[in-house]
Each structure stands twice: as C-alpha cells, then as structure tokens.
Amino acid sequence: MLKQIKPTKKEKQETKDFVDKTIQIINKICKTENIPNTKTMLVGSTAKNTSLNKKADIDIFITFPLNHTPEQLKEDGLKIAEKTIEKLEGIPEKKYASHPYLTGHIGKYTVDFVPCYNIKDATQLKSAVDRTTLHTKYIKEHMTNTQADQVLLLKQFMTTTNTYGAKYKVSGFSGYLTELLILKYNTFQNTIDNAVNWKKHVSIDLENYGTTKKFKDPLIAIDPTDSNRNVAAALSNQKLSEFIIAAQNYQKNPTKEYFKPITIKPNINDLKTIFKKRNTKTLILSFNIPTLPDDTIYPQINKTQQSLIRTSKLYDFEIFNSTYWITENKAYILLEYEISQLPNIKKHTGPQIYNNINATNFKIKHPNSIIKENKYIALIPRKYTNINEFIIGMLKKEEINQLKLGKDIKETITNDYQIEDIQKFMNSTNNENLKQIHQYLHPTIHITR
C-alpha cells in the first residue's frame, strides 16, 4: 500500500527543484526590493517528508524580524509573493480569512506564500502562523524516515474515511496531529490498536509538560513547541468518533480497501424510496454565496443551519436530522422534519392558580383558559402550522432577525433563496448534490468497507 501513496523519487526531485528555484527567486526579490533580514523556508508536509503522492502541499514561509510591524509584514510579504508568482508565470489567488498570504497556481503546483515572524520559541509568537516553522523543525528533528512512511499510511486512512483535514469544512485531524500520533505510537497499526480504545478526553503529551488538564476537548494533544496549546482543538467530536469507529472496523477487517476512496454513485430512485419510507418532510434551502475562503464561509453556513434548527423547535417543528454543503458558489441546507403540519392551536402553560396576581392577569389575557391540575392552560392559535410557510415567514425581512445568520450571507438569503421539497429538488439537481444527499442517507459510508 505504501508504494501507491508515497511520492516517487522523481516526484520528490521535481518538487525539490521547483522549491529551490522558488526560494532563490524570493531571495533575489528581497535584495532587489531592499527588504533585508528575511529568511525563506519550506514548511508543511513537503518539508517533513510526510506528503502523500500527488498531493504535495507546498508552503513557503517568508520570515521577518520581530521588529517588523504587522502592516510592514503584510505589505512586504504580499509584495514578495506577488513578484515571485509573476516571475514564475503563475496565477495569484487571495483567499485568506485573517492572516495575509497569497496562493500561487504555478504549473502543476499550488503554493502558499506566507509571511510570518522569525521566532525561536512560542513565547515570541506575534501572528497565528508563526508556530508553523517551529512545528516543521520539531518533526524534522524527531521523526525517522520509517515513521514518516507510517504518517503516510495514517493520513491516507484518514483521508479515505473522511476524517482528515483541520479546516472547518471537515473539522478533522490536521497533518501535524497525525505526525504527533505517529511519534506517540510509532506505527500506523499501533495507532489503530490504541485508537479503538480511546475514551473521552484522551491525552497525548510527548514532552511531558503536564498541561493536559487545562483542556476539555475530545482529544488533547499538547503541542511539543507550546505547552499551552492543544493541537487537536479543531478536531470535532463527530470526526474523532468517526475515526475511532473506522479504526474498530479496520481492526476487525484489515483490508486494503480502507486506503482507497469510496466511489459514490447515487441512484435517484433509491434515494427517493428511502425518503418515502422515512415518511418525514425534507426541504432543501439553497442560496448563492459570495466568494470567500472556506474557513470564512463554512462557519456562516453552519451558524445559519443551527439557527434554523433552533427556531424550528421554538415553533414546535421538530427536526429529525439536518446537514449542509456547498457546491460551486451555492449553499444547500437540508432540513428533515418529523412532521410538516401542526394543529391550529397549541397549549400555553400559565401560572399556578395559587399565584393570585399572575393567575388573575393570565385569566384576563386568556379568558377561555382551562385548569390542568393546579395550573392555568390557554389554548392559543399558532402563527405557523405548515413548515413551508414557517421557513418562508422566517426569511421575510420583518421576521429574519429571529434567525442568527452568517453576516456575509444574510442579504443573499433574504433577497434570493429557493426552498424545495426533497423529491422535487432531486428531479432537477446535478450529480454532485445527489452525492451529498446519498452521503446524508448513508452517514457511515466512509468508515466501513
């Protein structure tokens, strides 16, 4: 299996030659532009020999002295990146959410050019990305070539079980976290054998800092370069749980199929039948989204979804399950409700009959209220009895403030959205959306073989 996922010697040499050439260009630009005291270094999985075949993420960090202001860092860093990409005849792309960096699409390579501060340890941190250089140095100093190969196996397993990737879109294991797991457990198989027995708040502290009790995350992996940081902070409980189950499944049936991606071939008739048998009411809310970095837009879609779920419950529309996804520049929120229609009236519980003032006021407001044991109960009309009417109502300008929507998508949703029944939606949608629906209906598809 390793042979299939490990970069070939030729691929490694080509990448090395490209990186060397790029760094030489950066150094020349720094001289020409009179930007002194910079140091350029390759970081990330390519630098650490833990990059999967044909998935080399090239991260080139341009480090600046600590006396550089954040404004200078941004200005000089982006200038160097732009000129480097131009010199290499690449296409620049700006997609950062907070810390400034530039992505260059240069031939077959995608390169992130990231300005940061040249720090010796975590006490000197000035920007969010500074620690990356420390991570690269630590792994290169502590990891053997044999262990690097084991990282590849673990990364591939996590990739095909859909548990790899620390960005919000996945909220899974980061590359650095997989490397620390191998430093802890030495081999892929040993990592699996330990993971099957992981409990809540399992902790890893390679440098024995003794700071694990500071954290309450599902998995705690103390950063060897910073005793006050949990490397696994971005790992969601969902993805940790999926990885543990995937490990248990693999241990029972250690087939190579776990290292191969699942091919999803949705059958629209099968999907329709499943929804029909469930006898729920499923709606798809879709709307256009602005072009923003994934780590900016995905949290906003999630926030919108969670707000719709909470507000639905407030109006007695119970959610059975829900999911969301993005394809191209459009977001989709799937809402599966237990029921689509409610009675015209609902019970409103009032005070106890002994509470004279409140009971009197309640009786005045609801003269037809009844007594249930020792409390007044009023039967009041519902504002919304139909789920479609409810969502349409909530998205009107006069009601939308009841929802907590992502700041960059609120206007888009208000002005231009579509709400469709799942059956109708599937008739007219594309294959990518059908794949997402298939995964929703088969949530364990990636973690079993």
Notes on the structure:
By secondary structure, the chain is α+β, with helices and mostly antiparallel strands. The protein is built from 16 helices and 15 strands. The chain folds into four domains: 1-141, Beta Polymerase, domain 2, CATH 3.30.460.10; 143-261, CCA tRNA nucleotidyltransferase, domain 2 (Poly(a)-polymerase, middle domain, Orthogonal Bundle); 268-341 and 385-441, Poly(A) polymerase predicted RNA binding domain (Alpha-Beta Plaits); 345-381. It is 42% helix and 20% strand. Strand 3 (91-93) and strand 4 (102-106) form a beta hairpin. Helix 2 packs across helix 4 (70-87). The longest helix is centred in the first third of the chain and has 24 residues, at 9-32. It is globular. The model has no long low-confidence stretch (mean pLDDT 96).
Task: Offer a concise description of the structure.
The protein is α+β, with helices and mostly antiparallel strands and 449 residues long. It folds into 4 domains: 1-141, Beta Polymerase, domain 2 (2-Layer Sandwich), CATH 3.30.460.10; 143-261, Poly(a)-polymerase, middle domain, CATH 1.10.1410.30; 268-341 and 385-441, Poly(A) polymerase predicted RNA binding domain (Alpha-Beta Plaits, 2-Layer Sandwich); 345-381.
